[in-house]
Amino acid sequence: MIIHISTYDNKGGSGKSAYRIHVGLKRNGLKSIIISKFKTTNDKDVITISNKFVYYLDKICYKLQKYFSLNDLFYFSTFFLKFNKYFKKSKIIQLYNLHGNYFGILLLPYISKNKHVILRLSDMWPMTGHCGYSYECNRWISGCGNCPKLNEYPALENDTTKILWKIKYNTFKKIKNLHVVAPSIWIKTLSENSKFFSHAKFHYIPNGIDLNTFKSLNKSESRIKLGIPIDRKIIMFISESIIEDERKGAKYFFEALDIIKSQNIINPLILLVGKIDEKKLHNFPFELINNGYISNTNDLNLCYSASDILVLPTLAENLPNTILESMSSGTPVVGFNTGGLIDAISHLQTGYLSKYANSEDLANGITLLLSNNNLYETCRINAINHINEKFSINREIKDFIDLYNSLKF
């Protein structure tokens, strides 16, 4: 039996990955249980980590830890995991996002005794003093402290990063059977340089895409269903919170659009998917369609298929599901040359890798793909083939099953 511990069962990048793996394992005959803070599906094999009483105690813990800037150290729900009937039977626990105010990292050695711990890295949080992504900062390598970005998610009121780093270090070194699963080569390299995981075993298992869900649909038919003009170049931008989440790079996207407008070479229509207050879009340079937040995978596939390109100028990223979904749908991606994007996007082969944080080069990539039909078609076909070969859900599940089978009990 595999126990997955996640903030969500099927929401957000990490939660969707947890549920995708969970369903894939069950499809292959394995017993799989998700224990999450929030349950969003009707899956009987998904249970919440706490009852009402424990949830109330956890809220008190959250307020105290937030006040002292010692986030995600102790929660009663984590303590009581030891007595969960499914948890007791399992020899493998697989961890996803742990900074969702529900999991106490201090208790990990306690609950994982005599179990194999598989830590699937959703971001950098397990190896830093507090942040999900460190950007140009390398303090996480030696011990954090004097944090330059306390407001970076998950934010801290006071700089306790040195203490939190030491606590994580002492916690992870107590886990004997620790396996780190990296969805991208980028984060695998970082984790191998972390003192936290000096005794761990490392595995590269990239995200997998359901090729039956995310597939290339007829572009004209997709646009008709969405009420989008069939004779325009469509640029898609997706983020759960388009402006608020600065890491996703909406600033650079909007700057690139201004540059494209001034060049007067193409006249695209912009398709936004995600939460946004349109009142904040002053003097937007092109016609805009805002589809809002979309959770339904078939509707997302329609949006990808209706678009010509997806632009994802994220400043820091592991291996985002969105680029894999887009490419599998036959829509090339333009993004910055950073993080796990390099695993999927081959420059001028499956998409365009722009210079990091460079709006001008981002504009160049957008214009090039939308004005060069031969290059665009090459990238479109190569993108589909690349996802089919390297990033299918079947391959991901096979790699996890092989990992489980290799563990000795």
Describe the protein's topology.
Blueprint: E1 2-8, H1 12-27, E2 32-38, E3 46-48, H2 52-67, H3 76-79, H4 85-89, E4 92-95, H5 108-111, E5 116-120, H6 139-142, H7 161-172, E6 178-182, H8 185-192, E7 201-204, H9 219-226, E8 234-241, H10 250-263, E9 269-275, E10 288-290, H11 297-306, E11 309-312, H12 321-328, E12 333-336, H13 341-344, E13 351-354, H14 359-371, H15 373-390, H16 393-406
Parallel strand pairs: 1-2, 1-4, 2-3, 4-5, 5-6, 6-7, 8-9, 8-11, 9-10, 11-12, 12-13
Any overview of this molecule?
The protein has helices at 12-27, 52-67, 76-79, 85-89, 108-111, 139-142, 161-172, 185-192, 219-226, 250-263, 297-306, 321-328, 341-344, 359-371, 373-390, 393-406, and strands at 2-8, 32-38, 46-48, 92-95, 116-120, 178-182, 201-204, 234-241, 269-275, 288-290, 309-312, 333-336, 351-354. It is of the alpha/beta class and 409 residues long. It folds into two domains: 2-208 and 393-406, Rossmann fold (3-Layer(aba) Sandwich), CATH 3.40.50.11930; 219-390, 3-Layer(aba) Sandwich (Rossmann fold). Helix 1 (12-27) crosses helix 16, helix 9 (219-226) crosses helix 11 and helix 10 (250-263) crosses helix 14. The two termini are 13 Å apart.
Observed structural traits:
409 residues; alpha/beta; Rossmann fold; 2 domains; seven-stranded parallel beta sheet; 16 helices
